[in-house]
Amino acid sequence: MTEITSLSLFELIKNIKEKNISSNEVAKSFIDRSEKSKKLNAYVTENFENCLKLSKEFDNKPNFDLKLPGIPIAVKDLFCTNEVRTTAGSNILNNFVPSYESTVTQNIWNEGGILLGKLNCDEFAMGSSNETSFFGNVQNPIAKDLVPGGSSGGSSSALAANLTPITIGTDTGGSIRQPASFTGTVGLKPTYGSCSRYGIVAFASSLDQAGPMSKDVKDSSILLEVISSFDKKDSTSIDFQRNNYSSELTRNIKGIKIGIPKEYRVDGMPGEIESLWKKGIEYAKDCGAEIIDISLPHTSYALPTYYIVAPAEASSNLARYDGVKYGLRSSGKSLIDMYEKTRSEGFGEEVKRRIMIGTYVLSSGYYDAYYLKAQKVRQLIKQDFDQAYNKVDAILTPSTPSSAFKIGEKSNDPVSMYLNDIFTVPVNLAGLPGISIPAGVDKNNYPLGLQIIGKPFDEQTVLNIAYSMEEKINYKNNITDWWME
Amino acid sequence: MDGIMSKNNLEYLIERNDNVYEVVIGLEVHAQVTSNSKLFSSSATKFGAEPNTQVSLVDAAFPGMLPVINEYCVKQAIKTGIGLKAKINNKSVFDRKNYFYADLPQGYQISQYKYPIVGEGNVILDMPEGQKHVGIERLHLEQDAGKSIHDVDPNNTLVDLNRSGVALMEIVSKPDLRSPDEVNAYIKKLRSIMRYLGTCDGNMQEGSLRADVNVSVRIKGSTDLGTRCEIKNVNSIKFMQMAIIYEANRQVDLIEEGEEIDQETRLFDTKKNETRSMRSKEDAHDYRYFPDPDLLPLEITDDFIDQLKSEIPELPDDKKKRFIDEFKISPYEATILVSDIDTAKYFEEVVAKMGKNRDMKLAVNWITGELFAVLNNKNIEIANSPISAKNLAKLINLIKNGTISGKIAKTIFELMMDGDIDPQIIVEEKGLKQQSDPKALEALIDKIINDNREKAIEYKQGKEKLFGFFVGQAMKVSGGKANPQLINEILKKKL
């Protein structure tokens, strides 16, 4: 039999249900491999002992009707987990242990999932390479000293290295799709309002959305079905009819109209991205889709708009980390002094940069020129998509303008780092579902992803297109376990 | 007071040299919404609980916690808006007001900035010189902050978050008030309306009602507004009045000395009776207001508003009008009786229990006289009156039908307080029924005249003052029970 850890979620569930393997065996396998993979630095907090205990409990009293029967799962450390340290990759929450559980993770435990550990991420999800984490860089299992993407970099690394069968990330401007693209995995950002934000450490509230990251499309559909739910505890959660994503998953996409936005051909885009996109178009045609050229005229404004809206919200969302109630507190001579020391020591450079940008764009005299204008442009970007969706059912683009880069390569150049999000950010601004699937490799054999963007609440079409293209592309990661030496 | 001239006792004006100034006042009243739970969480809101016992994860701003609007608080704000005859906005937006303070866990207060839930309205004040209309600019919903406690631990400030997240209505008036008396009437009227509606208990001791007071002065007759100062967070009507008087005089002095008034935020020091600069316009916080992305705009349908309108009770202005029309009492009496909803209720119950032969004058006098005196003395709310409306009505009826005299009634009233006793029972048990049998009274008077022959003769000779002596004797002998009217008649006849 193949290694347990290389099985897909779907295969694991099948084997557990057929009693070929026990939950405890599965847990042991992932824990064993995780123990041997510390060099990747994917975990911030391990929950191995407890995971083994719970898997035994599951095996003693199995419930095979659950959707994730006894499946160990590591999650991004942005999800608050009851009695398990939750850091958001920040020193300011270094010792924070929540007394509550996020709705998304609770949904997973309710369906039989077992927490394996908390995965590294960029500090407060601000970053595209996992280099802003207080807990250090994460290695991409694809090659040494390669970034795993970000901000869900611990998640993408752990997933690609088979340290967890599946995982969840959060995506504010591409933080699920970009790391998936960098690690040859699948990452889905659902429609804004699909997965509850309750209990997720907030970055930019109007953009944040949790979503599945998996080895293949089918696995993402299984996990989406579990985590997507209407939640009264989140006022922006939307009460819509959710599909049975996994059972409705089909490769029959004949006649589906897929739009190709001309504005996504950006200056300086590597030729291999261009050719990947062309290949993707051919795959889509092979699957029976109809390809239609479309225009999303305000695309070039998306990145500046995002880098106003997201820092603005973040500057306010992060005001609660003040040393008064929980988390790090540095001693100071006065309240203000304590604030300044706590926040200076507690936050890293990138977080400080964004707090300052956000504070600036909201300040009186600048609000209209920046924040208000950005909100207006955001509406225009949304309208672009609305109009496009009069003609097409989904949109196909590259996931990122390049493959994974080396650790340190861009860390001193924030703008070039921000440019990484150029294809993913418009999707967040418009609140749409988007998936990244692995579609090929660049000249270094580093994975490249394609993005499929759907209509609001139409995750099913997005998944179906991805599922059918995935079969045609037939991508396989080539991972050598180099870090185990 | 020095420098204050009052031409007709009604206007509040300040005279310096040859200039006469009037004071322009606008109030931002913070009224705590009567609600069992907070504006965006389900924590309790009871006053006086142990510190930090009414705090949820949302109130303490734990990571990932999200606000969820309390529909009841929204209804309360709309009802208040209706009571202020104000426009209810179909769409309003919650904004974040960002600033750092130890008792502000989120680092921002959720408030409404550009789009409040309630727009312009109007409040009528009953002033001695007549009615005065005060414009309402807006009413919006916002969260209260927690409380910093500086005087318990010598080295640390402690924070109590029980109040953090409690719903407040900020009611902003137009700069329509002109005197401390009008401010008094305005606050009392607002409180009265909200108590009728059950939307705010108006308890100033417990901080349920407090105000920021905006004060400016100008030459009487001018239509331009002067530079204003805002006096923050004043928590009693008396202090508001003191602060206004101090501040207005301070501003007039500055103007008279040829100096400019700085637009600034000031604090009222209740011990020194003065206002002090807290921060100038230049140091004003930049609150970086922006719409709270955790909350959707509040959308309210006309049906929803109509439903709430149908639940609005009769409010003081309407009740006053009805009392005057229906019960033929004076506007002054009606104003007193409607000012507090429980008083109005009590009065109406007395009226109802008096039945057909009701005597409004007696009812008003007994309530605003004897009863108010007792309640004041004992510091009891009328809702907890030691004498029920039913029994007071009985007492009034006993007077009205001649069973007892007004004087005996006062004795009975005292006795009734010991457990709300039925006055009829007291009358019977103590034998306090009025002597109204003419024959018995004649016999009694004959005996008195007999016993005081000389005085009777003196009276007949013209010493009319002695009539009182005979009445007094009759009352004394009868133990106060003799019907005074009958005594008068019989005495006149017999003497």
Describe this structure in words.
- The complex is a heterodimer of chains A (485) and B (495).
- Chain A has 15 helices and 11 strands.
- Chain A has helices spanning 9-17, 23-35, 48-60, 103-110, 153-160, 177-183, 217-227, 271-286, 302-317, 335-346, 349-362, 368-388, 414-418, 425-429, 459-473; strands at 43-46, 72-76, 114-119, 167-170, 186-189, 210-214, 257-261, 290-294, 394-398, 434-441, 447-454.
- Chain A has one domain (7-263, 269-296, 383-480): Amidase signature (AS) domain (Amidase signature (AS) enzymes), CATH 3.90.1300.
- In chain B, helix 5 packs across helix 6.
- Chain B folds into 3 domains: 4-308, no CATH class; 314-430, no CATH class; 438-494, Orthogonal Bundle (Arc Repressor Mutant, subunit A).
- In chain B, strands 1, 2, 3, 7, 8, 11, 12, 13, 14 and 15 form a 10-stranded mixed sheet that branches. Chain B has a 3-stranded antiparallel sheet with strand order 6-5-16, with no helix packed on it. In chain B, strands 4-17 form a two-stranded antiparallel ribbon.
- Chain B has helices at residues 71-83, 180-197, 237-256, 302-310, 316-327, 331-338, 341-354, 360-378, 389-400, 406-416, 423-430, 438-451, 453-460, 466-477, 484-494; strands at residues 4-5, 13-16, 19-32, 91-92, 95-98, 108-111, 121-127, 130-143, 147-149, 158-160, 167-173, 209-219, 229-234, 264-269, 274-280, 290-291, 298-299.
